[in-house]
Amino acid sequence: MMQKKAIILDRDGTLNEDQGYIHKIEDFKLLPGVIEGLNLVKDKFLFFIISNQSGIGRGFYTVDDFWKFNNHLISKLKQNNIKIEKTYFCPHKIEINCDCRKPKLKFIKDIVSEYKINLKESWVIGDHPSDAQLGINSGSKSIYLLTGHGKSHLKDLNKKEIEPTFIAKDFLTAMKYILSNL
Ligand SMILES: [Mg+2]
Ligand SMILES: [Zn+2]
């Protein structure tokens, strides 16, 4: 049986704008190129979201707020014929040192056991060094985005010597890169 391939997406700053701890539907805004980009590759990959949501653990918003916002995003994508298989999120504050906060592998392991995906042929995409690190830790390919917090965290990426497969100026560029590197 052919193993499935996945694109594991960060959410805030990758799919939607991120003003920091974003959780209100009024503030929801898809980033440019997201619909077009996902449509380019959707026949070849399953899509998942893994998101660090420490704002929940810090009491800035609730799990319920998280799902309202997330469901809004999922329905916008669905209207454009894009399916997210599943969303995973870490609600813990950093100090707890939980097992699920990116770049830890818990959710990747969950995806592999449920969907039997081929990690080596899969991609992890995000605008934070922890996303690129997650890609490396999981043995997947990775793209670091310069949208969201990507530009301001670029120096951390370099300082920590994290080397993603590719650095993309925006989401559409990232998806085109994936298409040309199948
Ligand atoms: Mg992000
Ligand atoms: Zn966690």
Question: Can you put this structure into words, describing what you see?
Answer:
The chain is built from seven helices and six strands. The protein has 182 residues and is of the alpha/beta class. Strands 3-2-1-4-5-6 form a six-stranded parallel beta sheet, with helices on both faces. Helix 1 packs parallel to helix 7. The protein starts with 5 loop residues before the first strand and ends with a helix. The model has no long low-confidence stretch (mean pLDDT 96). Zinc ion (ZN) is lined by residues 90, 92, 98, 100-101.
**Strand order in space, largest sheet:** 3-2-1-4-5-6
Q: What's the helical proportion of residues?
A: 25-40%
Low-confidence runs of at least 5 consecutive residues:
none
Q: At the first level of CATH, what is the class?
A: Alpha Beta
CA-CA gap between termini: 18 Å
3D shape: globular
- Write the element-wise H/E pattern from the N-terminal end onward: EHEHHEHEHEHEH
Task: Give a summary of the structure in a few sentences.
Helix 6 links the parallel strand 5 (141-145) and strand 6.
Task: Write the SSE topology.
Layout: E1 6-9, H1 34-41, E2 46-52, H2 54-57, H3 63-79, E3 84-90, H4 106-115, E4 123-126, H5 129-138, E5 141-145, H6 154-159, E6 166-168, H7 171-179
Parallel strand pairs: 1-2, 1-4, 2-3, 4-5, 5-6
